[in-house]
Amino acid sequence: xxxxxxxxxxxKTSPIMYGLMFEDxxxxxxxxxxxxxIRNRAFQGSGNTTNPTLAAYRAVGDAVISIDTTxxxxxxxxxxxxxxxxxxDATQVGFLNExxxxxxxxxxxxxxxxxxxxxxxxxFIVSLKSNLTSKVYxxxxxxxxxxxxxxxxxxxxLHPEAAPNVNNTLQITFNANGSEEGLWFSxxxxxxxxxxxxxxxxxxxxxxxxxxxxxxFLRFPGGNNLQGDEPPYHWKWxxxxxxxxxxxxxxGTWGYENTDGLGLVEYxxxxxxxxxxxxxxxxxxxxxxGPTIPQEELExxxxxxxxxxxxxxxxxxxxxxxxxxxxxxxKPWVINYVEVGxxxxxxxxxxxxxxxxxxxxxxxxxxxxxxxxxxxxxxxDPIPDGAWLDYHRYTRPDDFVSLFGMFDNWNRSHPVxxxxxxxxxxxxxxxxxxxxxxxxxxxxxxxxxxxSEAVFAIGMERNADLVRAxxxxxILQNLNSYQWxxxxxxxxxxxxxxxxxxxxxxxxxFSTHHGTTVLPVTSDVKFxxxxxxxxxxxxxxxxxxxxxxxGTTTTVTFEVPDDNVIxxxxxxxxxxxxxxxxxPKNETSIWTEKDVIKGADGKFAFDLPDLTxxxxxxx
Length: 619
Ligand code: AHR
Fold this sequence. Notes:
Belongs to the glycosyl hydrolase 51 family. This protein is an alpha/beta fold. 16% of the residues lie in helices and 31% in strands.
């Protein structure tokens, strides 16, 4: 296959082409990227209800633990845990927490805190312990003069020796003497060092893995988790800010309670620290299994979005801008993109086009004319002027490949944001798209799935004038409790078990080789089984991206319109067989890099095996 790049008629690429879509799904937030190590820290609910449980806790010593709903820690956090000693002379009674299916105990500093109510004059013993043996990795005495009628915050720092595995607990105990009545506890919290050292920040290793593939934007907070299942549980920005004891949390859409410790400010700090363009998703008034807010009641929710934007962008002289300053961020953030709702062709239907999207868009545009407003579906009629429209696709490999040319023929009257896409199932005989109900899903993304994503992504890149941003979804999966597979990164409490999927490496390959102008390419064959696109860079180089989907090993030659370009580097991504996958401690994907020198005929040449994606970077 001979590919010749033209120096004319290119399209400028988008500076935010490869990015992140994040919502709390698969314990991607609580128990994932949010670095809090204590599960159920404030008894905010269970499953997707607000009913509290003692999940992750056990009594220690001669004590009984129970939920109490009559002694709220704060108006937001109504449920607390009571620890009642069985006898007045019991020593070292209390509780332990098993963390999010383990606690990673390393030779580093952990900062913790907990609130206590009840009469106690003594010390709490706080320990990081093995869950299997009596081994204690760190222990501290925390002095207390807790009183019956007020909640007292206790703080501590632990510096343990490293534990050999993550089957560990945080244990807090006290002597019954003088506190026979029992003590009440809530907001039991423990953080390891975080990404960029932020208080209440992100789990370092997971954030660093995301950072490594060089994403350029963050779409948040959903996804379905923005929407909520039923009233009043859509994501509410103002309930995710400020002190943790003022954040009520909510039953998330994905079957577990969200603490909202990872809230709006933390999302913005994540954007700051990873240099990501925020794409803020706002609620459009559709609950997933509940009612739809009617037109005459929308004004309240639109005003709420304007309040949120004032909080993020307003000067400190505005009411919400001043609130942001009080929370430690006097400098306004900049929001350039707002998406209205999520997949509203699915839930919203006709009302989205008819008045919902226009009402939100018009109000935001009046206040912030610079903003790009994104519709959550391409099925908007009439197509709104200047808006981007969000297209999602989860499917099978053959289907992705069949969509290679889709954007070539797309209506050019609006830019496209591919806000979510991923391979989810193997091909079925006869081809076609996914079967949702009860269909078999891949646990991890596979080689053939990744190649099909590459073909689809190359199709997007060729249409740089149209497709302005794209994100694989979902990005994170806690292997101990998840609702959706496959995902970009799978993990447990143990960083040694993190699996970077084959699709992760594809995102990395494409994101780190993103040209500034996509150029036309002429060839001596049609697309299929090879699919390609080429771009130039600002420093005089060129990239060829090419995938081989169910072909044979093929020699590819590549010519660029510049005699001074003589050196190249070929990076390939593949794996041993079509269903190879990367799972914990078993990375099968193969990433290779080698130099390619221009031949005497003026061409760069290399062999591209089947089920391989490659980037040739020449300069
Ligand atoms: O990414 C998982 C889910 O898929 C998202 O929450 C939703 O937008 C889509 O249907």
